[in-house]
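Table S2 (continued). Query chain:
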Amino acid sequence: MENKLEVWKKAHDLTISIYLVTKQFPKEEMFGLTAQIRRSASSVPTNIVEGQARQYTKEFIQFLFIAKGSLAETHYHLYLAKSLAYLTEETYFKIDTEIISIKMMLNKLIKSLN
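Corresponding output:
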């Protein structure tokens, strides 16, 4: 399933990145931080596509706001992983840059729909 929205593509790529880096997390985090960050990251493109499928623009906007919330949650989990030394500084800043870009794109999309 390919989506035409650039923000969805970036959110999908972010989810892939999160899944790849969390493979390196300690095994005891499998049902803790690993599961939480994966769930919040995958929720971003999921909410974008679900909102697109809705009948009304107002509903789409609401799902975009939910995607922003999931993105904020992912951002915190990423910071926590860095603080626990589960990620290198380089990996953290690469993904942090992706998150900031997606946040700006979501803000622009929401603004354009209002």
